[in-house]
Specification:
mainly alpha; 3 helical TM bundles of succinate and fumarate reductases; 6 helices; 73% helix; electron transport; transit peptide
Length: 145
């Protein structure tokens, strides 16, 4: 197993200590998922890659929306923030469920709860944008306190 780790990745001190080499090789080994088939509808590595790319795209979109909310607040930015924040939170909490909830029934209950929570969050933010001042104006009002 230690031979699978290239010597260039390990310092010369590790190469002199075989015990440390075994520990370093274990750290470099890819993580194994012992909980069964891929989750969240990722039936293939291409789907998982697309999902990962989508998560990064939403994160970068949020980085652009934050200054836009300050510089040019308006309904378009408010609704974009509502969608991006809800999706970002949904995916993040989905990873928490994947990591910490085990068993078929608890996972189904947690995922159903997550979908309900995400739908209510998005509906609430859209209602706030439509019926009240909107996300951008609300944050500006909080900052002015």
């Amino acid at each position: 197993r230690a031979a699978a780790v290239p010597a260039a990745l390990l310092g010369s001190a590790l190469l002199r200590r075989p015990a440390a080499l075994g520990v370093a090789a274990a750290r470099c080994a890819p993580a194994r998922d012992s909980h069964g088939p891929p989750r969240q509808g990722h039936g293939s590595s291409k789907a998982a890659s697309l999902h990962w790319t989508g998560e990064r795209a939403v994160s970068v979109l949020l980085l652009g929306l934050l200054p836009a909310a300050y510089l040019c607040p308006g309904p378009a930015v408010d609704y974009s923030l509502a969608a991006a924040l809800t999706l970002h939170g949904h995916w993040g909490l989905g990873q928490v469920i994947t990591d910490y909830v085990h068993g078929d029934v608890p996972v189904k209950v947690a995922r159903t709860g997550l979908y309900v929570l995400s739908a209510l969050t998005f509906a609430g933010l859209c209602h706030f944008n439509y019926q009240d001042v909107g996300i951008c104006k609300a944050v500006a009002m909080l900052w002015s306190l």
